[in-house]
Design goal:
The protein is α+β, with helices and mostly antiparallel strands. It has one domain. The chain is built from three helices and three strands. It has a three-stranded antiparallel β-sheet with strand order 1-3-2. Strand 2 (33-35) and strand 3 (38-42) form a beta hairpin. The N and C termini lie far apart (58 Å).
């Protein structure tokens, strides 16, 4: 069984404030487990969640004179 991490640990991993993590939990934006009043996360699920939100940078292309 994979170890569950706390909001403090996750905020360190993602480099965001702990309050941001709590907001994401409140809105159901991030996968989490509720254990009573405590919130825990599986790192593998967080990694999959991040991969789904990966956005490539802008694609550079050269405009031809016809497109101008």
């Amino acid at each position: 069984m994979e170890e569950l991490i706390t909001t403090r640990q996750l905020s360190t991993v993602l480099k965001v404030r702990e309050s941001t993590i709590y907001k994401w939990v409140h809105y159901g934006f991030i996968p989490h487990y509720k254990l009573g009043r405590q919130v825990r996360f599986k790192l593998s699920q967080i990694n999959r969640w991040l991969q789904k939100r990966f956005i490539r940078g802008r694609i550079r292309y050269k405009l031809s004179s016809d497109e101008l």
